[in-house]
Amino acid sequence: MSAGTGPFLAACRREPVPHTPVWFMRQAGRALPEYRRLRGSGSILQAIADPELSAEITLQPVRRYGVDAAILFSDIVVPVWATGFGVEIVPGRGPVVEHPIRSPADLRRLRPLEPEGDTGFVLETVRLVARELAPEVALIGFAGAPFTVASYLVEGGPSRDFARVKTLMHSDPTTWHELVERLAQMAIDSLSAQVAAGVDAVQLFDSWAGSLSPADYERFALPATRRVLDAVRALGVPTVLFGVGTGELLGLMSSAGPDVMGIDWRVPLDVARERVGPRRAVQGNLDPAVCLAPFEVVADETRAVLARAGTAAGHVFNLGHGVLPETDPGILGAVVELVHAEGRAGVRP
Ligand code: 1CP
User: Fold this and answer.
1) What are the structural domain ranges in the chain?
2) CB atoms < 10 A from the CB of 292, how many?
3) Helix intervals (H) in 161-286
4) By the number of CB atoms within 10 A of the CB, which of 17, 43, 63, 103 ranks highest?
């Protein structure tokens, strides 16, 4: 079991740390040659359903980069997939839904999650990884926030304008609210089981929340997200809430009650700290595309993020979104070293 003591968990709680903790969203992905070797050409959902394989993939970036947290190798659509709702993950595209949700009758196809029966493989992966990790390295479990998961179920796949999901919420708010309530319950059941199996913290990915206006976020996304975060907080583990392009939503998202707000690269961390208030830690926010530049540039930009994070406790270094597949793993390893050496937020003198 990993203990509740390492730098990642301390930073989440805005406590002093020996060094600024760092991990990378999508750290277990295609940037790693050892991942590509292990994965081969099979479907990612098949890999996720194999606990030995998923545990190994989860641990690879911890060994390679020396990050302060592992993130469970899974996907935000796994709970709906595991309950038999027809969804596939198409390589190079993302989750694709065979029969999208468009009417009240479609909701009947979305049954509640039975975590052990439906996703026992995820829980086994958690147990295997928790056994292997050093006590100071945290294991992060996760779920998709109701709005972002709903966007795939309603659009039928990745979307640019989210026109169908917005059409549903505005034209049939009753069906919309029923849909996000069901997805909130699924996230709560999945996350509760992950915590019981040994995850130390939970990240809720509302990746596409930034497509909503503040008024629509508040009415159509915030209540279900708040319900998930309330339920997880009661389990005693720190929570992180993350989305892309959420600069105008950071105040509202903070009101959903996460311990840590994930910040993308568009908002400097000192500005983000003002928007989320003194009672939350921040996580971020190096632009993932910067990591494709020569290391001198990456080092300058990393130092700029650390400077904006300041000296107040409560900073987890991360990218502003996921690692791009073409990133040189050597660059990420060097970023970890630099953050550990030079980060100052809450660092004991
Ligand atoms: O470190 C890790 O790689 C952890 C595992 C992980 C996580 C945390 C995967 C594996 N998926 C996720 C979360 C996830 N999945 C999010 C939230 C994070 C984010 O914003 O990036 C989202 C939006 C998804 C949905 C998804 N799954 C997409 C995005 C599609 C879109 O709308 O643009 C994609 C491409 C996938 C497939 C997927 N999931 C994970 C991997 C490694 C892959 C690519 C594998 C493949 O294509 O075969």
Assistant:
1) 7-342
2) 14
3) 163-171, 173-197, 214-216, 222-233, 250-255, 269-276
4) 17
Residue nearest to ligand 1 atom 1, measured at CA: 26
- Please give the Cα distance from 89 to 66 (Å, whole number): 29
Mean pLDDT of the chain: 96
75 Cα: distance to centroid of ligand 1 (angstroms): 6
CATH of domain 7-342: 3.20.20.210
Does 39 participate in catalysis according to the annotation? yes
Atom of ligand 1 nearest to the CA of 91: 47
Residue 110 pLDDT grade (very low, low, confident, very high; cuts 50, 70, 90): very high
Find the Cα–Cα–Cα–Cα dihedral 114, 115, 117, 122, rounded to 10°.
150
Report pLDDT for 3.
Answer: 44
What integer pLDDT is reported at residue 4 of this predicted model? 65
Helix, strand, coil share of the chain (percent; to 5): 50, 15, 35
What pLDDT is recorded for position 30? 82
DSSP string, 185-221: HHHHHHHHHHHHHT-SEEEEE-TTGGGS-HHHIIIII
Q: Are 336 and 23 in contact (CB under 8 A)?
A: no
